[in-house]
């Protein structure tokens, strides 16, 4: 283990050299979403994740194993549509 080294006195933040003018700032575009939009997007994502769990259970039970077209339809309707709708809600209201 190496010993800790200390800066000489009068250097760093304690010396007062860092002022607000020396810190680089970057402009950022931020959007504040209404609460209803966040709740709606959250619920849509919960539905999408819940349906993914349901599909995993259905595959284990054999309900969707035989029919691959049913697997594609189920994943499109239950997972992709709610996820895309949540993304659209957030996109529209973010500007």
Q: How far is the first residue's CA from the last residue's CA?
A: 53 Å
**In DSSP terms, counting alpha (H) and pi (I) runs of 4 or more, how many helices?**
2
Q: What would the principal axes of the Cα set say about the shape?
A: elongated
Determine the mean pLDDT. Answer: 78
Can you give the helix content as a percent range?
Answer: 55-70%
Q: Which regions have little confidence, pLDDT < 50, spanning 5+ residues?
A: none
Quote the beta fraction. Answer: under 5%
SS-based class: mainly alpha
Oligomer: single chain
Give the SSE order as H and E letters. Answer: HH
Provide structural commentary.
- With 95 residues, the protein is mainly α.
- The protein has a domain at 31-83.
- It is built from 2 helices and no strands.
- The radius of gyration is 26 Å and the shape is elongated.
- The mean pLDDT is 78.
Summed up, what is this model?
By secondary structure, the chain is an all-alpha fold. The protein has helices at 35-61, 68-94.
What are the key terms here?
single chain; 95 residues; mainly alpha; 2 helices; 57% helix; 0% strand; elongated
Task: Give the SSE layout.
Layout: H1 35-61, H2 68-94
Helix pairs in contact: 1-2
């Amino acid at each position: 283990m190496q010993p800790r080294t200390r800066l000489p006195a009068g250097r760093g933040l304690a010396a007062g050299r860092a002022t607000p003018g020396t810190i680089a700032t970057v402009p950022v575009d931020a959007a504040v979403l209404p609460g209803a939009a966040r709740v709606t997007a959250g619920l849509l994502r919960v539905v999408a994740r819940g349906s993914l769990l349901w599909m995993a259970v259905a595959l284990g039970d054999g309900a969707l194993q035989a029919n691959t077209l049913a697997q594609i339809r189920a994943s499109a309707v239950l997972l992709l549509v709610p996820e895309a709708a949540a993304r659209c809600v957030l996109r529209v209201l973010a500007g």
